[in-house]
Design a protein that fits this description.
Blueprint (H helix, E strand, L loop, with lengths): L1 E5 L1 H9 L4 E5 L11 E6 L7 E16 L5 E3 L2 E2 L3 H10 L5 H8 L6 E10 L4
Parallel strand pairs: 1-3
Antiparallel strand pairs: 2-7, 3-4, 4-5, 4-7, 5-6
Length: 123
């Protein structure tokens, strides 16, 4: 199982199933792979730690977000603004400028992994 922590602003959307993905910077630790069970928390390593959901990783893509608004998934530019807007909404943001401000502060270039999930089967 892989655990991910979410800022308080994303806790509600994760619990309600509105946020169906997370974007994480590439680092030393491995990220989820399709089929992995994900534990989604808020407040990890604090007294207020709370499990938001248990879900299954359905897919992952390399993602690159540029301050000018260009977004690449697995090296392919998303040309359709509707695709970008859907990505933004699935990640819990209201609009593209808010998304860019979060991932590209001070005009920084972001590279990471997009992790998509689905509800676990109740079987």
């Amino acid at each position: 199982m892989v655990a991910y922590n979410f800022k308080p602003q994303f806790a509600g959307p994760v619990e309600r199933g509105e946020k169906t993905q997370t974007i994480r910077r590439t680092g030393k630790r491995r990220h989820a792979r399709p089929g992995d069970t994900l534990q989604l928390y808020t407040g990890m390593r604090t007294k207020s730690c709370r499990l938001l959901a248990l879900v299954k990783c359905s897919n992952t893509w390399a993602i690159e977000i540029r301050p000018d608004g260009r977004v690449y998934l697995d090296g392919e530019l998303l040309n359709d603004v509707d695709q970008v807007q859907q990505l933004v909404q699935d990640d819990g943001f209201g609009d593209i400028p808010e998304f860019l401000w979060f991932f590209c502060p001070a005009s920084e270039h972001f590279k990471g992994v997009l992790i998509k999930w689905e509800a676990l089967d109740d079987a």
